Amino acid sequence: MAEYTVITSDFVNLTISNSGQQSCSVERRFQKGITIDDFKGKLELLTGGNRATMKLEVYDKNNQSVCSPDNGSRLLGSYPIDDGMRVHVTDTFIRPEEDLSKVEKFEISEEEYSKRPDTVKAFLAKNKLGKYNEEELKKREEEKKLEEVAEEALALTINVGNRCEVSVPSFPKRRATVMYVGKTDFKEGWWVGVKYDEPLGKNDGSVSGKRYFECPPKYGGFVKPAYIKIGDFPEEDYNLNEEL
Prior knowledge:
- One of its GO terms (molecular function) is microtubule plus-end binding.
- The chain is α+β, with helices and mostly antiparallel strands.
- It is built from four helices and twelve strands, in the order ββαβββαααβββββββ.
- The strands form three sheets. The chain has a five-stranded mixed sheet with strand order 2-1-5-3-4, with helices on one face. It has a five-stranded antiparallel sheet with strand order 11-8-7-6-12. Strands 9-10 form a two-stranded antiparallel ribbon.
- A hairpin with a 7-residue loop joins β6 (about 165) and β7 (about 175-185).
């Protein structure tokens, strides 16, 4: 069997294009001492093709065909391939580019989808998971109603004008005056609107354009009834003019 040897430099810089993506090409450096079969193996990673079905065509810088490497045991460097040339990979295994907007879409009605046994919806329903677990959903609804009743009862013990101390988790305690008690448009449940003794709030008694009470900017806030403690909390004296 004839032997082939590399007689030029050890590496060659090539541009790789393929039939699956006509508009895309990449540049890579390859050892000339590898066989064509190994070269095709590297091209698999770049093109998504299969070495067993791909065909190679080498073009020079003028886009003229130079050679078609097809002997798997022959060395890459034994072919007349130089830096800057392009190797085009043609492979029926590579899926060509498609305009997905022109691909016919599979559509199914909600009723037909519900009847199919091999869908995610069918799996969840069969195993009573998520929204298909009626017992768990019923339990959550009951717990939510109890929480709402308890929150309403607590809110009704708070009156506008009450002095209070606000204790929201991760925030320091703040003294304030109750200015509003009731439901709001910005969030579900019962809320207590307060005017802080200091400018430690987030609003002026209005949220998203709706006014619930009046107070200076940065003095207003809304908190859940559970974070409100009603009591004799006099306003603290913050005398900024006092000399130390």
